[in-house]
Amino acid sequence: MTKDDIITLPNPHLRTKSQRVGLITDGILEVVEKMKSATISWDQSREHEVGVALAAVQIDQLYKIVIVRNNYDNKDDHTFTVFINPEITKFEGKLEEDFEGCLSVKDIYGKVPRYTKVRVKARDEHGKDFRVTAEGFLARIFRHEIDHTNGTVFIDHIKDNPEAFFRLTDEGNLEQLDYEKDVRNSRILW
Ligand SMILES: [Zn+2]
Description:
Layout: H1 26-44, E1 53-55, E2 65-69, E3 80-102, E4 105-123, E5 129-135, H2 137-149, E6 165-168, E7 174-176, H3 179-184
The structure holds zinc ion (ZN).
């Protein structure tokens, strides 16, 4: 699996709800491994970005599976934690706006409001249930990825906000997009 297996907008599967995983079969574990290799491959092709997490739908496997990089400050660390059937059980803290990007929405970044703290329950790849509490950037990652499993893309949260859309330049800077031209009338985003 490589970065070319990652689906991008306007693929309608990105706005389709994924199914829950029942038994963790060899086929499911294979999907997990493919998600990891696709993320690493994408990451190696992007100079200014790190692939911090991925949902299975992004490699066109419509299962509720999310992987999160264990150390997203270090591109050489290729280990991930696997969350099967992840669910947010509680939102806490306050709503905070920050930049978000997505492997399935090329070059576009958005300022998305998210809660600063969430509790998540999931199953690991051995079938054991576990819970985590995430704060700050990690809480944002969980919201973003669990949204994917429910057919929501980050831009859907900000589609009516003309100030919220940015593009990553070749130099690695974010510049604001023309909302009417590049966002509202885009054939790629919607
Ligand atoms: Zn995403």
